[in-house]
């Protein structure tokens, strides 16, 4: 998965990674927010969910200490990372900013 993750974040378009856990209540809220974000940004960006319990090495390599943590990568570079639940408008704004 780590190799696949590296390939994934090399994308020309922004990739929003949602580091989450199945037992995390705020993660469930964030997940429904991301569904709305996906509808609004369409093909401009990609949204990928990574379960920190299934892939702890990827979480630790990316400095994830709490869930949910969102990170935006483009061409292998980390552009933005923050923990906590984020709203649709700020995430759409970030993805549109990085997709241009």
TrEMBL record:
Location of the Thioredoxin domain: 1-100
Any one GO molecular function term: protein-disulfide reductase activity
InterPro entries: Thioredoxin, Thioredoxin-like_sf, Thioredoxin_domain
SUPFAM superfamilies: Thioredoxin-like
Disulphide bond pairs: 24-27
Active site feature: 24 (nucleophile), 27 (nucleophile)
Swiss-Prot/TrEMBL GO biological process terms: cell redox homeostasis
Gene Ontology cellular component annotations, sorted alphabetically: cytosol
Site (Contributes to redox potential value): 25-26
Keywords: Disulfide bond, Electron transport, Redox-active center, Transport
Family: Belongs to the thioredoxin family.
Name of the protein in its database record: Thioredoxin
Source organism: Epilithonimonas hungarica
């Amino acid at each position: 998965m780590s190799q696949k993750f590296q390939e994934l974040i090399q994308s020309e378009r922004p990739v929003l990674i949602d580091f989450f856990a199945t037992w995390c209540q705020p993660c469930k809220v964030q997940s429904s927010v991301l569904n709305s974000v996906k509808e609004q940004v369409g093909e401009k960006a990609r949204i990928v969910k990574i379960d920190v319990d299934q892939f702890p090495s990827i979480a630790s390599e990316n400095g994830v200490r709490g869930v949910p943590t969102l990170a935006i990568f483009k061409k292998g570079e980390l552009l933005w990372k923050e923990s906590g639940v984020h709203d649709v408008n700020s995430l759409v704004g970030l993805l549109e900013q990085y997709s241009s």
